[in-house]
Every structure is written in structure tokens, then in C-alpha cells.
Amino acid sequence: MDNHLLETPPPSDLRSRAAGRLTGAQELAGVATRAGNALAALHALAMSPTTAADALALLHELQVHQVELDLQAEELRDSRAELEAELRRQVELHDFQPAGCFSVDAQLVIREANLRGANMLGVAQDAAQGLGLNSFFGADSAQALRDLIAGTVEQACGPLTWRQAAAARPAVRAAVAPDPSGSGFLVTLMSI
């Protein structure tokens, strides 16, 4: 899981970015002038007895907007926490499927593997990325996998023969489907 995608910038960073925009330090040139003009106009309204009520109403409206923004930010933080928890749950479910699940490209190079799949191959989960899935199988089985990817045979085949027979490796069959993301394929290895 890419944790850097889930990290929230610290509030001080957001405040710095917002302050930078208000002072014109970033791409929104002229915002500081408009903000300064708005504050000067509000101050001028507040100083006049005839428009002080309008200034207070405007200030109240700005405060309401600020509270709305604070509430929205709180809801976004809560939603993000819920989504992160659900993502962790889905990753755990994926990792502990009773089948080996792989995301591969057209050359059967592994992009992702669940924990069960990596265990089937006898490698660490992180180490599976970049390996050729077909390299773990004998010549005929590797060709069967390539045929599955090419679409020249049915969507499933098996039993597949491991390149190096090991007592811990169960006989498997493979099923292939297009990756829903549109890039590559999903290969599932199921024990027979």
C-alpha cells in the first residue's frame, strides 16, 4: 500500500500555503490586494455609525463561512480516516485470499502479488514485484500461461507444473481476467 498517498499535509503547511496565496507569494497574484481591500472596506464600514450594522452583519457572515469550512474539514478528516481503515481491511482481505492473486503485464511480469501468491512462489511479497510469473513454471505450463494472456485458450488452465518441484508447492490451476484498471491482467493460482 502506498502510504505516501494517504498522508495529510500538516495544518501548519496548509496554513502556510494559504498565507502564501494571500500575500501573493504563490500563483494567485493580486489576492493580497483584494483581501487587503476587503479588510479595509470592512474596517471603513465598521467605523461609520450608519454602516456599522452592515459591517457587523458582514463579519458575522464571514464567521459563519469559517465555521462551515471548519466543519467541512472535520468531515473530510473523518471520511479520510474511514477510507484508510477500509483500505487496510481490503488489503488484508486480498492478502489472505485462499488463492494466489497476481497483477501482471502482457509479458507476465508481476506488478503486485498477494501474500498467498508470494508464498506459493516461495518469495517475499515485496520481492515478487518485477519477477516473471511464467519463470516459476515448467516450459509447457509457462506456455499455457502465455496463451492465457494472449487469449488463444480458455480463461483457465491447469494443472500447471512448477519448474522446481517441491513438496510444499501444491499443484495449481490458473485463471486470467483483464485487470479492471485497464492495464494488464489479473492471474489467480488456485490449489488443486
Characterization of this structure:
This protein is rod-shaped. 15% of the residues are buried. The chain is of the alpha+beta class and 192 residues long. Helices cover 50% and strands 15% of the residues. It has 2 domains: 3-94, no CATH class; 98-191, 2-Layer Sandwich (Beta-Lactamase). A hairpin with a 5-residue loop joins strand 1 and strand 2. It contains 6 helices and 5 strands. A 5-stranded antiparallel beta sheet has the order 2-1-5-4-3.
CATH C-level label of the largest domain:
Alpha Beta
Number of strands: 5
Count of individual helical segments: 6
| CATH homologous superfamily heading of the largest domain | PAS domain
Q: What is the CATH fold-level name of the largest domain?
A: Beta-Lactamase
Give the terminus-to-terminus CA distance. Answer: 30 Å
Calculate the mean pLDDT score and round it.
Answer: 81
Give, in spatial order, the strands making up the sheet with the most strands.
2-1-5-4-3
| Morphology | rod-shaped
The ordered string of helix (H) and strand (E) elements is: HHHEEHHHEEE
Secondary-structure content class: alpha+beta
List the helices and strands and how they pair.
Layout: H1 11-22, H2 31-47, H3 52-95, E1 100-104, E2 110-113, H4 115-121, H5 125-128, H6 139-150, E3 156-160, E4 172-178, E5 185-191
Antiparallel strand pairs: 1-2, 1-5, 3-4, 4-5
Helix pairs in contact: 2-3
Which key features would you list for this structure?
alpha+beta; five-stranded antiparallel β-sheet; 6 helices; 192 residues; 15% strand; single chain; Beta-Lactamase
